[in-house]
């Protein structure tokens, strides 16, 4: 006579055997179906039916999510489109669960180390071959080959590290991966970095908060399905993720709870009923749509998916958890989990997608209205289109640089070079030579100083001037307004291109050596061929001396203060120092009147005489002050004398042709200025040829390279093309794209129904 307990045990045993029998039948049928579907897909792939394959629903939906991700990488768009968000504590087995669903070991792994450093969006879809590819790459990874799997894991790891900014451990930027294969359940999953309790060494201090922030951002979407992964081999009380999920979905209307490593839990937990309590959510206040238990291998990273699946099925066939009805058959294995998650995902998609499409239609209408009101006469150009427009403008302006006339180049080069070297010519060559007593000494001094100047400084100065002139002309073309057509939105970009191009441009090093020879030969020549050249040299000399005289007059005026007219008209007074300088100047001028041939330097007895004369009038003066004042007074006297001499030399060309024989007039200083003027003209001509033949082209090449580099740098474009107009055009483009893709997806969804 059997007891009631034995009857119950016998019935449970029979029920379990029946469940396992049908499970095996179902698996056999599914396997046959999978093979048949694979054959059909392969036939379509080879084009046997000669028809174009439409995009699958899941691929269309994934594209919508990709556009949303590009639209706002920080996930602030607040779209409410469904995704399966995979969250769990670090090392809880999130990645292993995902790999079982995707049927491939696709993620990088490490013992106890944080491997998921940024969200990974995995789009699962059916296809004839088991392959994976990134949304921004055409390379397919064959998931049946171990070398391709290793390459895929390495690529995911590289992309994660690239996304993570310096000083951070995790990143909110999403990596988008498509996985296709026969028998895969269609859905979009987002694997998030594992939640941590403590920040360890090597991590950024804000890592814990950043992971919480990323997880909350994805989970607060009211249509996101939360796949909460809990490690069954550790105490449930140590889990952080369950509290986080409870906050985001307190009623459990969109949460699926998964207990991993159940084999270890059954082995280590003294009371198996504790696993049942965890599965049913009785150990912590977390509600869920469904509860599942899975086994994701024996902890060996080299195990194949097939081996893990066989081990999982074998474990649950012999597990007390099923035999004692603590778990139901539909609650175990990753295959059942995958089916349940896919069903839940598509149910959520069908319920929410049309509402989301309407939301984007309203957003589009608002953006279009704002554009019409603010920019009625402008086309909607997004950042990339604006960059292309600016690129064409910049290249046109660089071409304009090559159309500058030779005359203009030579004029500005000659003027700039003279401005740079005039001080050296007057102070270091002309004035010292002019202090000499005869023409022979003058010419010798000039020749020596010109040779030294040509050997050491002049070629370098000339190249500097040419480079600066090229920069100035380039800047002028880049920055000068183009009238009504000028668009100031490009100003920052043009300035950045200009600076970067100039920074990259290097002047040809050989130019200096060849220029030195040309300049030396030009300065050696003293033969003025006609009266016109003679007059031009005199005019050049007069201009140079008058400019120096003006500077000297200003220096004296600052030294002695306002004259009587300014004091009377503007009520200004001299300071005590200016008064002393004025008295000293007057005394020195008396001395010059007495001896107009006075040398450039005062003798010590002359300084003493001046000081005593001033003291007799009650003016105390220092010898150094007398010397400073003398320098300016004598300089003015010398320049005025030189200008008078220059005027006399206007009629000196006849005497020059006779080498000043039988003539009291000597105009060697005019010959010097002619040599300088001719050297400037020849140098300007040489530099102009180098500019137009070589440097402008090289600069144009640099500009093209800079523009190409900027075109590939999205961050640079965002930084340089800014403003409300740009952002509005960007938003309009993205919202239209999202809406169009959503509409196409909804239409396909209705057709499938």
Automatic annotation (TrEMBL):
Residues 78-354 form the Dynamin-type G domain. It is found in: Mitochondrion inner membrane; Mitochondrion intermembrane space. It catalyses: GTP + H2O = GDP + phosphate + H(+). Its main location: mitochondrion. GO terms for cellular component: microtubule; mitochondrial inner membrane; mitochondrial intermembrane space. It is an enzyme of class 3 (hydrolase). SMART domains: DYNc. It comes from the Eukaryota. Its EC number is 3.6.5.5. GO terms for biological process: apoptotic process; endocytosis; intracellular distribution of mitochondria; mitochondrial fission; mitochondrial fusion; peroxisome fission; regulation of mitochondrion organization. One of its GO terms (molecular function) is GTPase activity. It holds the Pfam family Dynamin_N. Residues 8-46, 689-716 form a coiled coil. CDD domains: DLP_1 (cd08771). Keywords: Apoptosis, Coiled coil, Disulfide bond, GTP-binding, Hydrolase, Lipid-binding, Membrane, Mitochondrion, Mitochondrion inner membrane, Nucleotide-binding, Transit peptide, Transmembrane, Transmembrane helix. It is a single-pass membrane protein. Oligomeric complex consisting of membrane-bound and soluble forms of OPA1. Interacts with RCC1L; RCC1L acts as a guanine nucleotide exchange factor (GEF) for OPA1 by exchanging bound GDP for free GTP. Interacts with CHCHD3 and IMMT; these interactions occur preferentially with soluble OPA1 forms. Interacts with PRELID1. This is Dynamin-like GTPase OPA1, mitochondrial. It comes from Neovison vison (American mink). The lineage of its organism: Eukaryota, Metazoa, Chordata, Craniata, Vertebrata.
